[in-house]
Amino acid sequence: MDASVIEKFVNDLDTAFKAGDPHAASKASETSCVEALQGMYRAAVRGDIAAFLGALAEDVEMENVGPESIPFVGRWSGREAVAAAVARNFAWLEDQRPEVLTVVAQGNTVVVHGHERGRFKPTGRPYAMHWVQLFTVRDGRLARFRQVFDSAQMVDAVAGWKPQ
To answer: What domain of life does the UniProt record list for this protein's source (predicted)?
Structure first.
C-alpha cells in the first residue's frame, strides 16, 4: 500500500474525530483511543508485527461481518489469531485507497466510517466499498474490533476464486 495514502488515512482519523466538535480536544479518553487506533493502523500497514501485537489486548476479538464468499469474513480471538488474520486479509488486497469519512468516539469506543477502493489480488478485479469499523479500547490497547461493509462489489471481485 502506498505510504502517503495510508499516512493521509491515519492522519484523517484525528481530523475527522475533531470535525464539527469544538470540544473534541478536551476529550482526553476519546483522544487517547483515537491515538491508539492510529498506532495500530500504522503498525499493521508497516508490517511491524511486534508493534501491532503490542497494540492489541491479549484477549482481543475481531470480527468481519459479510457474506461467506468473501475470504476475510470471520471471527478471531487472541493476539496471534487476530494478527494472522489481519496479515492474511491485507495480503489478498492491493492498490488499497482507504478514505475516512467520519469518526465518532465516546468513552472507550471509536466508530470509523470509511470508503475504500482497491483490487482483490487473486482475481485482479477492482472493488469499492463503504465500511464501518467499531473499536473498543481497553488500557490503551485494542480489545474488540468489528467491521461491517457494503459487500456487493467485493462479492463481484472474488467471484469464481477458490482458495488454494
So the answer is: Bacteria
